[in-house]
Amino acid sequence: MFSTVMSLVKIGKAAGMLGVSVQTLRASGELLPDRRSKGATRYYAVDRIRDLTRRPPPQPRQPTLPSEPSPLEAPGLELTTDASGRDGRTGGADWI
Prior knowledge:
Layout: E1 8-10, H1 11-18, H2 22-28, E2 35-36, E3 42-45, H3 46-54
Antiparallel strand pairs: 1-3, 2-3
Helix pairs in contact: 1-2
């Protein structure tokens, strides 16, 4: 019977191969460790890391627009200027 030997690396090496920090790798949950030592050291399979690096990068998310208009865009609200070009937001004070 044949036994397959899995090549494992510690979390620091795995993070370096993926181009992320150790903290990011721990927190992401995308790649779970294949083994843990009694001291809780995380070990990752090199083959799985290579598979992740071959994936195309995720597409950036498109920003979502707010579902309600901002108060300045509310219907019936207009921003007007007087003859001097001031926009009227000074609360009636005459600033020079």
